[in-house]
Design a protein that fits this description.
83% helix
Amino acid sequence: MNMDILMAPIIIFLIFVAPIWLILHYRSKRQVSQGLTEEEFTQLNELITRADKMAQRIETLEAILDTEAPQWRTRDE
């Protein structure tokens, strides 16, 4: 009796859940091993370029603030 209660969920798991789980697991492993796609690589390079431009802008703004308001870094927030 006790074994009958456990058999149904185990069979359902083995028939439906386990195969889907294995397929998805190995598909994700394959995608990780392939690395970045060309589109992802292009997007990454665009983000790097944008980050560099933003860093330059921040440096410029800080230089302007240092000139016009020398105490801006030490002000209480």
